[in-house]
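User: Predict the full complex structure for these chains.
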Amino acid sequence: MFPFNAEVLASLYAQYNTAIWPAQVLALAAALIAVWLTLSPQPWSGRALGAILALGWLWCGAAFFLRHMASLDFMAQIYGWAFIAEAVLLLWALVWRGGTLHAAGGRLGGLALALAAASLFGLPLVSGLAGPGFAAAGVVGVAPAPTVLLTLAVLLLMPGRTRWLLLVIPALWAAVAGVTGWVLGVPEYLALAGLSVAAVAGMAAGNWRAA
Amino acid sequence: MGSWITFNVGSNQDLRDQRAEVLREFFARGGTVIDCSPMYGSSADVIGYGLEKLGRPQLFSASKVWTWLQGDGPEQMEEQRAAWGVERFDLMQVHNLLNWDGHLETLKRMKDEGRIRYLGITTSHGSRHDEMEAVMKGQPLDFVQFTYNILDREAEARLLPLAADRGQAVLVNRPFRQKALIRRFEGQPLPGWAAEIGATNWAQVLLKFIVSHPAVTCVIPATSRVDHMAENMAVLTGPLPDAALRRRMVADVESL
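Assistant: Here is the predicted structure of the two-chain assembly.
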């Protein structure tokens, strides 16, 4: 099914991290700003969050999948363009249309913050402690798994139907990651799949209550 | 030997050097046929690296064309050839029958021009045997490649006899169902008849079953380990099972 094994995937992540250093620092700083914007909403929070997330998806699509992963996996082209498409959707929904977010209160807000924390620190910890090590850990904004998770956290706080459109690509990639994690034994991907289920369930529950 | 997954190690230098040692063992024990595909990621680059490191040993190079568009085929094949660093491929196959009619047209022309020696088609996992059979009957193929192993024996019914009738060489893929058969049997003691064919492990039992079929030309197991390559290549020596023992092998293995 997959044309590579877990050892090679870890090696690719480690080489990628070395190649893009210190982009991780900037990406992590941007993600922290995104979390701050959800905790202290400003009138322009939606636009700023949309721009930050879109940049992360664009980077993951172009730099990670199309430039690095494509040498290993014929599916990387599809993933890469899907990530770029999600960047465009985020720009359209949050920046162009000026999307707003709910305040990060209540259970959904707590879940969103927990997922955001997991995207920043949880998934790298899983990778470092239970996976191939910190050198191969994905960093939010420049690696797909934590970027998907941070996006799901933001979508939890987003009102209206547009969030379901924005959910399609992250959910599909989380499913792909889950299968990859299961078949190859990649703890970070398995954790993403599990947390994504929680995020989608949270969105569905929030939608049901709103209705 | 095959290269699916096992040689797709990207640019990791340690892994590339280790795979070059796998190749060294392959050639040292008399191996010649190496099979690859553009679907296998960096495998072509890693094979090329290994061949260069080993001083360009004599080999039978086999790769594939795998693209929907006939017009993209020549460029893809040229990329593979450059990655391997060979003057020309001995065998070029249409991968998984993808746009086989268009690509076979290209391959026939390349063969006429001397840019490849042989042409063929492939499938795997036992799929699309009807279409495979039709192409084998209707096209001037030199080689065919499909899945055949001690538990997946659908090819015995039509494809293997047809290949023999039409003089088409047969490459067999997925001899171990990508390790699944090894894992399934490795906890079982080797049957008594294994010693009769000089097999000292299950991999050799499985490979000897395949290569002892009269219509099979070559089996292409893939491995990333030097010791496993040595085990696989040991099948080139020693006795092979006859028809009676092959039937017994099937019965015994299916009962496990």
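Chain A is about 75% helix and 0% strand.
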